[in-house]
Amino acid sequence: MDAAISIDQVTKRFGAVQAVSDVSLTVRSGEIMGFLGTNGAGKTTTIKMLLGFFAPDAGRVRIFGADPVNAAARSRIGFMPETAYYYRYLNLRELLRFYGGLCGLSAASIRARTEQLIPQVGLADAGDRLLAHYSKGMLQRAGIAQALLHDPDLLILDEPLTGLDPLARIQFRDLILALRDQGKTIFFSSHELSEAELICDRVAILKQGRLVWLGSCGDIAGDGGQNLERIFLNLLAPGTPEAPP
Amino acid sequence: MTPCCRQLAALCALSLRELYRRKDVWVVFTLGLLILAPLAAIKPYGIGGGSRHLFEIAQLLIWISAAVIAISVAGRQFPPEFEHRTIYPLLAKPVSRTTLLAGKFLGAWVASVSATGCFYLAYGLFAGAKMGIWFPAVFCQAFALHVGFLTLVTALSLLGSFCFTPTANLTVCGVVVGGMFAIGQRLPEMTAGQPAVIRALAKLIYVAAPHVEFFDLRRRVVHEWGPVGWQVVAAVLLYAVVYSGACLLLAGWIFRRRKC
User: Fold this and answer.
1) Spatial contact of A134 and A142, defined as CB atoms under 8 Å apart
2) Which chain A residues are closer than 8 Å to B14 by Cβ?
3) Same domain, A176 and A238
4) To 10 degrees, the CA torsion angle through B162, B166, B171, B173?
5) Reduced to 3 states, what is the DSSP secondary structure of residue A118?
6) Which residue, of A124, A151, A178, is where some domain finishes?
7) Alpha carbon distance B251, B245 (integer Å)
8) I need a labelling partner for B168 at 20 to 30 A (CA). Which of A112, A183, B16, B154 fits?
């Protein structure tokens, strides 16, 4: 299969802080990859490099073979940020119209996608309400809608489960699996280990900017009663020596 | 419509939507009209000619309101995006930072020009009703130059928003615009007797600072002195375009280098 994401020996430093160190990772088209790690492990920095917000100091990042720093390469990416802040003075329809325009979609296709997505993310009754009056969970759903608006091949989701109630989590899981069945690639960072284990085909774990574990969820299940939580704790507990991926 | 035009239109529409959904702009707008309307109605000291003094006040108010709207709207284009992190989904879309900056500039420009256009329309109607002269050529020139002024101030404020905090940007732009209106033209004469270092500094400021006083035709409009040559208007507008272009290039350079 083609690589949707290719991260090759990527390093990023901010002043004295080594945010990401020599990370290499390939995400195949059509798979769900979980990107796990404690706070400050370098997940968000890696995601920002995948989105072309800045280039790595060393190494190479490619999305479907293209450099994401170029705007055209980002047309195949849908991104949902960790903190779902959107323009409070817009309603959801207006927000989607705005983002649709930014994606270069025609007015007719924006209208069609909007009417399709709003019920899909469970906001059918709230499409005309100002985002200022949305709850955190509703904003997360709005975030998913804007990420899916231009029908991207790759979805990058930064902590997508934050603020979702149990019912919304189940709906989100179903949505992600349905998108995978449609051939989409999904790359998401999370602290929710049990959810990651349920959804992901493969999981990568970062520790202090280094990739310390990479494996499939199938391997975990067959590994002597291990689960992702135990692996995560073993790898990331203070004082644990770094394991090679 | 090309994708780039759609992107610019989306960014422009967002700025306009924000402008009319924010209450502070409506306050400026209502105040402006409330001040203009009585000016058109009263005859000060019972003298018809006294109206010119009131028109001068009305013009001054239009200039102050337009400058406040242009500086505040342009200065608010980027800082809230960074502060509220709405910049992340924005930058993740297939839109270049140059297009983003151009769209934000266009949005702020259209917002301030349309607000100023309403002020001018109201002034033109009130003045026409009182003096019996409807939208003379000098009035149209004054509006054209005011648009040039807004172009320059919008670009300046947008650049300032990348260099200063929003409050500092508002203050710096206000001081620069107000200062240049007050003493910009006379800066070399004022420092003629000063030591060479101060004269050189004044010269530098004179060359580098935006000469907003070039755009001011208030007295010609109020006293009906007749229009200036159109080639003068064109030269001043060209100055606005070149100065704004330089500000936007610098802003684009800072924006492209900024890590989000």
Assistant:
1) yes
2) 87, 90, 98
3) yes
4) 40
5) helix
6) A151
7) 10
8) B16
Cα atoms found within 13 Å of the Cα of residue A182, Cβ hemisphere only = 14
Domain boundary among A108, A130, A151: A151
Nearest to A74 by CA among A101, A103, A110, A98: A103
Contacting residues of A for B1, CB less than 8 Å apart? 106
Rounded CA gap, B235 and A7, in Å?
53
Residues 6+ apart with CB under 8 A from B154: B70, B73, B74, B105, B108, B109, B112, B244
Chain B residue nearest residue A145, CA to CA = B89
What is the tens place of the pLDDT at every residue in A77-121? 999 998 767 898 999 999 999 999 999 999 999 999 999 999 988
Q: Are A158 and A240 in a shared domain?
A: yes
Same domain, residue pair A162 and A241: yes
- Domain with A206, as residue range(s), is 1-76+152-245
Q: Which amino acid is it at B21?
A: R
Nearest to B92 among A54, A79, A97 (CB): A79
CB proximity list for A67: less than 8 A, separation 6 or greater: A52, A61, A73
Query: What are φ and ψ of residue A181, in 5° steps?
Result: -65, -25
- Nearest by CB to residue B92, choosing from A77, A83, A106, is A77
- Interchain CB contact of B85 with A (< 8 Å): yes
Q: Do A104 and B94 touch (CB under 8 A)?
A: yes
